[in-house]
Amino acid sequence: MTAIRFFHMADLHLDSPFKGLFGLPEQNFKKIRSSTFEAFEKIIHKAIDEKPDFLLIVGDLYDGEHRSLQAQRRFQEAMEVLFQHNIPVILSYGNHDHLNGSWTRFALPSNVYELPAETSVVQLKIRGQVVKIYGFSYSERHIKESMIESYPTANDQHAIHIGMLHGSESSDTTHAVYAPFKKEQLLEKNYHYWALGHIHKRQLLHKEPPIVYPGNIQSRHRNERGVKGFYDVTLSQISADLMFVPTSAVVYSKVEVDCTGVFHANELLEKCGAALADNRQEYGASVVELHLNNIDEQAEALFEHATVEAWLETIREEEEGIEPMCWVQKLMYHRTATPYEPTAATESVINLMEQWDISAWKDILRDLYQHAGGARFVEPLTEQDIEHLKSSAQTLLADEIQRA
Ligand SMILES: [Mn+2]
């Protein structure tokens, strides 16, 4: 039984602009701004070193439909290098880099198969083993209808069949639904592997055969936390072996500091420094959301004469110049819950807040999220954000009542 080896990646989002970052030193911004390229280059180096049989790239190679010139140039150069090493690449375009955008065209070398808008098959022969790869590119940004019917059922028993699909599982309503599918529909095709893209969080929807989201290769904002990468897959007709390979050039992470017993400002700074050093040790270059937990009355005095912004600035100064970089994007502090006597008024407000669903919250926050000048600076509202808003609103309310 011949086994083949390929790299499965998706959502490169090359030249992502990282719009939500402000006030950071020039060299930090440069590092972050080039992280999508750096992550991609790690993959190309590994491909050159280890010579997999081919690469699959499942949509959203480029961040914008205008496909920045720099991104295209860097991508083309990478493909030329793979051409010299005889490594084929099969790619599809997704909702971000759909075929209807307007961009300056670069010609890619002949080892690269760009899937067209109609579901098509690419056939390769690897050490005598026939491999059939099916997929399509987005003809326009919004493909809301299911595309799965357009994929043929595997009938050639001697071939290895792989489906490439940029889209979302139809029950997953946390994302805009693109080219929706049900897991059962994929399984019915009798393929040996489903290479998915679109959802940036790595996940295995099914084990045998594997149905896989590798996630993106580099986080783009604080809601895409953790180490990103791709899958190095060894596949035969009867077995699949998946190895995750990290590629993040900059890791977005959440760092928590326990402030129990903190009394002096320097103690707080030391604790933050130590926690950030651990984070640096684990992830290398990073963008951090720093949470100060268990702020008791004693520790709270530290925030009476200095604002959170002033603390953030001081912590950033402490970190400046240390390599690899650690940019504290956000500082949040959480008081130990101060018991308060609930009154009918506070309870009714809190209960009301509990009843708002995601669309009610979106409606309430409409002024901010639809603001002509400001909307482009805020990241999309997530369920996590709403949870956080809800708890801060409740704490604030309880506090105000108590002080009144
Ligand atoms: Mn994407």
UniProtKB/TrEMBL annotation:
Domain Calcineurin-like phosphoesterase span(s) in chain numbering: 4-201
UniProt keyword Nuclease present: yes
Nuclease in keyword set: yes
GO MF annotations, alphabetized: exonuclease activity
Superkingdom as given in the UniProt entry: Bacteria
Keywords: Exonuclease, Hydrolase, Nuclease
Protein name: Exonuclease SbcD
